[in-house]
Design brief:
Elements: E1 7-8, H1 12-24, H2 31-46, H3 51-70, H4 76-86, E2 90-92, H5 99-110, E3 117-121, H6 124-140, E4 145-147, H7 154-162, E5 165-169, H8 170-179, E6 196-200, H9 202-208, E7 213-220, H10 228-235, E8 243-245, E9 252-254, H11 256-266, H12 277-292, E10 299-302, E11 305-308, H13 326-333, E12 341-349, H14 350-354, E13 359-364, H15 371-378, E14 382-384, H16 404-420, E15 425-428, H17 432-442, E16 450-452, H18 460-466, E17 473-476
Parallel strand pairs: 1-14, 2-13, 2-14, 3-5, 3-6, 4-5, 6-13, 15-17, 16-17
Antiparallel strand pairs: 7-12, 8-9, 10-11
Length: 490
Amino acid sequence: MGNSKFTESDLRPYIQALKEIKKHILPDAMPEDLLRIMTDLRRQANEGAPREELLPQVFAAVYTAVERALSITPHDAQLLAAAAMAEGRLIELPTGEGKTIAAVFPACLDALTGEGVHVLTFNDYLAKRDALWMEPVYTILGFTVAYIRETSDTDARKAAYAADITYLTAKEAGFDYLREFLAYESSQICRRPFHFAILDEADSILIDEARIPLVISGDIPSRVDMDRRMIATVRSCEKDLHYATDEYSNNISLTEEGIAYIEKSLGLDNLYDENNHDLLSKINVFLQAEFLLKRDVDYIVRDSEVQLVDEFTGRVDKNREWPDGLQAAVELKEGLTPKVHGIVMNRITLRDFLRFYPEFCGMTGTAVDSAYEFYEFYGKMVTVIPPQIPCIRIDHEDRLFANTEAKTNALCEEIETVHLTGRPILIGTHTIRESELLAGKLRFRIPELRILNAKNDEEEAKIIADAGKRSAVTISTNMAGRGVDIRLGG
């Protein structure tokens, strides 16, 4: 279905709002003047003044605060995007147009009543970066700002949720909601009631990750027995002879030959006898662990632990484990002792969680392609904001290769050619394994190249900071994808 009917390109209402905003801008206002203005606007908001009446003055104050705090003058595209988000829209604004600053305008508008605004980012790195970057703007206007990361403890989370504006990932917000159901005392509850959310990289949060459940578990002993003979039998199975997978290697099943082979190896009359139900379940789990889940693709092994890699962010997801014994099976595959694992105590999808917010808006550089899904699942229209600066990037035609080796060789030649010109290069890969294989081919020719993936995520800020330097070569999984700005020159 076409997406045009679910997008909004008539910007006249927002252009009118832009004109009103500019009438209220006080270019000579000092920080103390801005604080006084915002204090009065807060009073009006708490006395019931309509948001649409306060918007021009709030946005004008934010405009000047951005100039004072960041020495950046917001441009019209950012103000139009902010006005649309204030109406609850999902806006599409191209990469590099300043969505992080645009989000500050509606955040301040909806923080006037003191009920708390959540800016839901794509990853922990962005939550911290954006909160610290925008903090001087909020401070001038009298707002408090904080951020939450995966490693934040209960006290830090409470303090962050008590701020006027809180930056965190959508997943962390969802997990904090689920943890409330396991709390025995009110002191263990971190959040305040839902009020307003701004979604950064909205298409990823609302579409890509929306159906993956967030799960809270309680500890129970692993139910996967250390049956070495069964493991050895499964490991000796051969593809297409003993087992088969579907086209995308998402599912696996035994063939007739495989069933007979396992029955003979384990001394069974009938693998599918009801008395062998538990054994059959374990065999299927080990088949998945052994042949479907790939190390350095689906998971990494670090500190003697199996840690899942999020397929969308390329980051380790410390809050997730595979269910139904699969986690323990992977641990056995890797020669680790299965640890205590969890029974599901509560779960929710991001799609259902986000509906708890009375209102939310969002922004991304790629919204139009998902406009139908936004409208169908959330009732949200997409507003397309033209860029302030026309894009001059040249998108070349795709190049197709007969096999992976030919593609990799051509890629290495291209990287070397560009590297000699001094231009910094970012190479995106799908998996950790792919990033390391490519680095291995290039390392002896370009010794100073850097790799960014889930294995060295603690070095992320440093690697990204240097990725725009002259002659820099950075190979990354999609960790350095959405929302990450790499400045030319470093």
